[in-house]
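Re: the request from the purification team.
They wanted to know what the chain is likely to look like in 3D before they choose a buffer screen. I agreed to run a prediction and write the result into the notebook, where they can find it.
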Amino acid sequence: MSENGEDLGAPVSYLVLKEGVPVYDRSGGPVGTVEHVLADERADVFHGLLVKTADGHRFAGGDQVDGLFEHGVIVSEPVDKLATPSADTPAGLAENRVSALRKAWDWLIQPK
């Protein structure tokens, strides 16, 4: 995002958020792009986003997503503060975020 702020378009629902949309932190720094939206559409529950970064995939829990827009997403943390999907539970994650992270990891390793 530029100093003047980029027009990220109108707010959107997680139901229509497209893969490949840029992800920014609150300061406007680039984080990566949306790889996958993690949600339980039947229960209308948004778990978070799997974000593709230069250093691999990261997970932004639903409580870390400040805004979903047509042309970008804003998350509350810089890329180095977002969880990395792994078999080990990242330290300090709340129980519900661990569950969402597990879903992200299971999605990543499933046979295609």
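For the purification team: DSSP finds one helix and six strands in the chain.
Please add any questions underneath this entry.
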